[in-house]
Amino acid sequence: MTLDEITYKINGCAMKVHKTLGNGFQEIIYQQLILKMYIWHKQKIML
């Protein structure tokens, strides 16, 4: 997977998290959810 592909997937995860949660949470909440979504998505592809 290229750096551009990884960046694209992380940005997609960030957009989904922000769309779901909206504004008003601390940055750490967004960071943790983006990481969890990325790991979940990566595992889903590998199965």
Entry keywords:
47 residues; 2 helices; mainly alpha; elongated; 0% strand
| H-E order | HH
* Proportion in β-strands: under 5%
Shape: elongated
Number of helices: 2
**Mean pLDDT, nearest integer?**
85
Descriptive account of the structure:
- The protein is built from two helices and no strands.
- It is elongated and about 35 Å long.
- It has helices spanning 3-21, 27-46.
- The chain is mainly alpha-helical.
- The model has no long low-confidence stretch (mean pLDDT 85).
Q: Topology of this protein?
A:
Layout: H1 3-21, H2 27-46
Helix pairs in contact: 1-2
Summarize the entry for a quick read.
The protein is an all-alpha fold.
